Amino acid sequence: MNVDTDSPALVFIDYSSTRPLRKGKLNGIYKQDETVLAYYAGKFAGCPPDALYKHPRDYNQQQHDSQKLKLLNCLESTWKTDKEFLEAFDSVMDEAFQGKVPTAVPVLYSTKWVQGHQGSLDSLFRTPKGWCDEKITQEEQECQAQEESQKGNEFLRLSNLKWRWAENQLPLVGMVSKTWFEDSWNKPADRDALVNELKQKLSHHKADAKQYETRAVEFADADYPERRKTFANYKEALEWLKLASNI
């Protein structure tokens, strides 16, 4: 905990959870910092409720694309944003939804629209000399070396996956995305067992009533459950499994 005694304001800064971006939370909830841009932009712009974007964790691919378009249209209308801004914001939202290490935010910040609306900045918390140098830290070098080693290993171990339907079926309402606090999963022994479980669900006598064929499917890494991937339906999920990739 750091206390700034030179400022007229008393400010507490918590460094207890500081970590490199590549090790940050990328599971589509509020702790993934990149998600707050879309979440609050709609609120600040006064967009109608149906144009607000929640968190990526709440959407499958189709819902994300639809809600993203509504939000961008609202920002263009209310804030009079230009094409450069909208394209950059689009990239930020896609990057957050895909759970990638964030790189698109600086591009958004550098757009003419943002720079033209930003007031003068007062540096209250000056970063110590050397902290923002472009040289890569030893920890990051080790991470990069490990990633390169994994990319070159054609026998890379495939992680076990757990799965669930990404939506709940509610009476008189239909399909509704699961909320961030729901954490029930099917945990097959391996990927072959996962495929069998999916196929068994599709042959279930209530498969049509439960809309299993068109229902969104979500996978999560069994060891690192914050790594997740959502598919529009079981066919997309099975096609991805054929790629023999990790999330």
Q: In oligomeric terms, what are we looking at?
A: single chain
Strand count, sense and barrel status of the largest sheet are: 3 strands, antiparallel
Distance between the termini: 34 Å
Strand content: 5-15%
Number of strands: 7
* Rounded Rg: 21 Å
Please count the helical segments. 8
Order of helices and strands: EEHHHHHHEEEHEEH
Runs in which pLDDT lies below 50 for 5 or more consecutive residues are 151-155
Average per-residue pLDDT, rounded, comes to 84
Overall structural class, as computed from helix and strand content, comes to alpha+beta
Overall geometry comes to: globular
Identify the strand order in the major beta sheet.
Answer: 3-6-7
Q: Helical residue percent?
A: 25-40%
Ordered list of secondary-structure elements with their pairings:
Layout: E1 2-3, E2 12-13, H1 35-44, H2 61-79, H3 83-98, H4 105-109, H5 112-117, H6 138-151, E3 161-165, E4 167-170, E5 174-177, H7 191-202, E6 217-221, E7 228-231, H8 234-242
Antiparallel strand pairs: 1-2, 3-6, 4-5, 6-7
Helix pairs in contact: 2-3
Protein traits:
two-stranded antiparallel sheet, single chain, 7 strands, 8 helices, 3-stranded antiparallel beta sheet, 247 residues, globular, alpha+beta
